[in-house]
Design a protein that fits this description.
Elements (H helix, E strand, L loop, with lengths): L3 E7 L16 E2 L2 E2 H10 L6 E6 L4 H7 L5 E5 L4 H13 L5 E6 L7 H10 L5 E7 L4 E5 L2 E6 L5 E3 L3 E4 H10 L8 H7 L4 E5 L10 H11 L2 E13 L3 E4 L2 E4 L3 E2 L7 H13 L5 H4 L13 H13 L3 E10 L9 H12 L6 E6 L5 H4 L3 E11 L1
Parallel strand pairs: 1-4, 1-6, 4-5, 7-12, 17-18
Antiparallel strand pairs: 2-3, 6-11, 7-10, 7-11, 8-9, 13-16, 13-19, 14-15, 17-19
The protein binds magnesium ion (MG).
């Protein structure tokens, strides 16, 4: 099997991006965008090494993004073309047979595209993934349409662009300082043939914040979690439900404030992200949680969800008891949860039911609660 290096170009400043830092390090589903790009190559069996051309100011960002991955870096240059040449020169000492040159800001590159480019290099010096143009193309003069451009011979070029190492290094050295839009153009200019292979519409390049937001939502999946809890009545003159004190002839027994509704809701959120249950995060054996307000618990579960880049789509709670009457407090309960989590109240629902006098809730021995949480993560 030929050796194949991946050279990832990630030295740009991303002037069109408009985020707080370089786009290749912007968070995508809770991790730097570049990390997802690197993973695509790191997990591909035909890639033997990864070298990333980075901006000299970005060493810390890169080290964090590439943590645990076998990826080296080289300082890039002022232009993309210069960065690629620096990368190729760095690889030249122990030259691979093939090199795939890829934009750091294309995190959705698929294994099939990488394989197709590598396969095409068996009989060609260069290979380029392309996708068809579906929109009609117009040549314009100011705001005025000049003419329609035939698109049957036009395609959009993507990366990774693949090359046999020696000819692309020669071409880059030869035309250093000239201005080419991509590496395939440089190889063509040097008189070599570049074969096209099928690209992938999903392999988008992130240029603007809107691109990133679109990708973030395309990558989201909806997940569901459910929770159930029971606490029994004991001495007292109020119960706490959804963080709201409700006057009653009894209190609820429990290690914390025994907010059965928030406990069920906490478990629902934890369940949706596969993060265990409330007892694991807040052991009843821990004195720290004696009498603790349960807003801490649900806030913790919610913070775990947020840390994964997820959001709460909705939370639906059912409180099961004969007494106290929940109805008069329902709006306050919804507002209470909305304010604990700092989300819109329209995403929260609190319902109540009795069990028609049946079972332990019917005998007024305690309160049960069920909750369902839908999350997008
Ligand atoms: Mg409980």
């Amino acid at each position: 099997m030929p050796t194949c290096a991946a050279l990832i170009v990630a030295a740009g400043r991303g002037q069109r991006f408009g985020g707080s830092g370089p786009k290749q390090y912007a968070p995508l589903k809770g991790e730097p965008l570049l990390r997802r790009t690197l993973r695509a190559f790191a997990e591909h069996s035909e890639i033997s090494s990864i070298l990333v051309a980075i901006h000299p100011d970005d060493e810390d960002l890169f080290t964090e993004a590439a943590q645990g991955m076998n990826a080296a870096f080289v300082h890039g240059g002022a232009t993309r073309q210069e960065s690629v040449l620096k990368g190729l020169e760095a690889l030249a000492g122990d030259a691979p047979d093939l090199v795939l040159i890829h934009d750091g800001a294309r995190p959705m590159v698929g294994a099939a595209t990488i394989s197709a480019v590598i396969s095409a290099l068996v009989n060609n010096d260069g290979a380029l993934p392309v996708v068809p143009i579906v929109d009609t193309l117009k040549k314009i003069d100011g705001d005025i349409v000049g003419k329609t451009v035939p698109r049957d011979q036009l395609v959009r070029a993507q990366t990774p662009q693949g090359f046999r190492f020696a000819p692309i290094l020669d071409a880059h050295r030869k035309f250093a300082g000239e201005s080419f839009t991509d590496d395939a153009a440089i190889l063509e200019h040097a008189g070599h043939q570049v074969l096209t292979v099928a690209g992938d519409d999903a392999n988008v390049k992130v240029t603007t914040m809107e691109d990133l937001a679109r990708l973030e939502s395309a990558l989201s999946e909806t997940r569901i979690g459910q929770g159930f809890d029971v606490h029994k009545f004991g001495p007292g003159d109020f119960v706490t439900l959804c963080g709201v004190k409700v006057p009653h002839d009894f209190g609820l027994e429990g290690h914390s404030d025994a907010d059965v509704a928030l406990h069920a809701a906490t478990d629902a959120i934890l369940g949706a992200i596969g993060a265990g249950d409330i007892g694991q995060h807040f052991p009843p054996s821990d004195e720290k949680w004696r009498g603790a307000p349960s807003d801490k618990f649900i806030k913790h579960a919610y913070d775990l969800l947020r840390a994964q880049g997820g959001r709460l789509v909705n939370l639906d709670i059912t409180i099961i008891c004969e007494r106290p009457k929940v109805g008069p407090h329902r709006d306050a309960m919804v507002q209470s949860i909305a304010s604990i989590l700092d989300i819109d109240a329209s995403r929260i629902s609190v319902k109540a039911t009795t069990t028609e006098g049946l079972g332990f809730t019917g005998r007024r021995e305690g309160i049960a609660a069920q909750a369902v949480a839908m999350v997008s993560a």
